[in-house]
Write a structure and sequence with these properties.
Blueprint: E1 8-14, H1 25-38, E2 42-48, H2 68-77, E3 80-88, E4 91-92, H3 94-103, E5 122-129, H4 134-148, E6 157-161, H5 178-200
Parallel strand pairs: 1-2, 1-3, 3-5, 5-6
Antiparallel strand pairs: 3-4
């Protein structure tokens, strides 16, 4: 970490359909993002969303055993959100959509300047899949995250797609392709830079 840099926190929401401790390409991709974020002085934590009972809905707390509030606390405490999703049938995983729907509640959760609380926070997207479609999934997630209030850094995504009609998986690679590794590094570097800039100069008041 460079001297005099303000410390940052990142949380990765792993939207794999596989509960812990199953191996997950989405979790591995997020960890590769974290390796780069840590090099920029960012504290990192992963959350495997299917390990929690996340109720359907668009409220911060749906009650009745809903465990989203536990995840929400981690999100609110973080400067950077990494949303890591697999592609299924050409779309983000259903878990990813559930997360976005729950984040919708934050539009009405504002600070003393009437800004939605996610304004001033940064989001990265990581996508893995065995078919084409990463650009579409990234675009869908970027739009939703930006609507909620997150800022997207320059080149703020990383992804890997295996060849069509084959069964290879990111977690089974002997080595991460150089182009993927450099893309991951750039996304993390830009996210840390933007998050620090926003901590020093928040967006104007909405009042």
């Amino acid at each position: 970490m460079e001297h005099n840099q303000q410390s940052l926190r990142a949380v990765a929401l792993i939207c794999s359909l596989k509960p812990s401790p199953a191996e997950s390409s989405s979790a591995l991709m997020a960890e590769h993002v974290f390796e780069n974020l840590r090099a920029h002085g960012v504290d990192c934590e992963q959350v495997r969303c299917v390990d929690y009972d996340i109720a359907p809905g668009v409220e911060a707390d749906m009650g009745g055993g809903d465990q989203w509030p536990q995840i929400r606390e981690k999100i609110l405490a973080a400067d950077i959100l990494v949303l890591s999703s697999p592609i299924w049938l050409g779309h983000p995983a259903s878990v990813t959509q559930r997360v976005l729907e729950r984040l919708d509640a934050e539009l009405s959760n504002t600070d003393e300047q009437e800004r939605p609380v996610m304004v001033g926070k940064v989001a990265l997207v990581a996508v893995v899949g065995n078919e084409d479609g990463a650009h579409k999934v990234v675009a869908d997630l970027f739009q939703a995250l930006n609507d909620v209030g997150y800022s997207i850094p320059a080149q703020g995504c990383t992804y890997w797609n295996g060849p069509a009609m084959e069964s290879g998986d990111y977690k089974d690679l002997d080595e991460v392709p150089e182009q993927v590794a450099s893309t991951t590094a750039a996304a993390a570097r830009n996210a840390a830079h933007l998050a620090r800039a926003l901590k020093q100069a928040q967006y104007p008041s909405y009042q």
